[in-house]
Amino acid sequence: MYKYLANAALAAGILVSACGSSASGESDGGPWIDSAEASADIDVCSTFNATAFLEDTCGGVVCHASNTRSGLDLESAGVLERITDAPSMSCDGETILVEGDLEASFFVAKLRGEVPADCGDPMPPLGDPLTAREITCLEQWLLSPSGD
User: Within the chain, how many helices (H) and strands (E) appear?
Assistant: First the structure.
């Protein structure tokens, strides 16, 4: 519990400035659009492709692809439509994504590592945790009206 609180506090500090920095340097591949083409004054999250990120990080054969038993498809088109105002399948009383309210969204709690007791593990459960930049950019995407 203390580990999660400490990580959350650290992430909160980083989150405040993570997407306020400028895009620079070369593309690191994956969900990041070639930042070499982005001007220095463009927000780093503008080079983030959330759908590619979810497919690469959360989808796949075992986890949240369209053909898995988890019941939560984060890989095929229409992710925002599927998760907005949908009840959580792993935690009674929780809503996956509450439109316009990240703090009330179970999806965001899972990404931040702020999972309520008896409601599963933070995501992703395997590999490295998400970076503050990744979480911030996903949160911006979740708040975007079109999901672009």
Answer: 5, 0
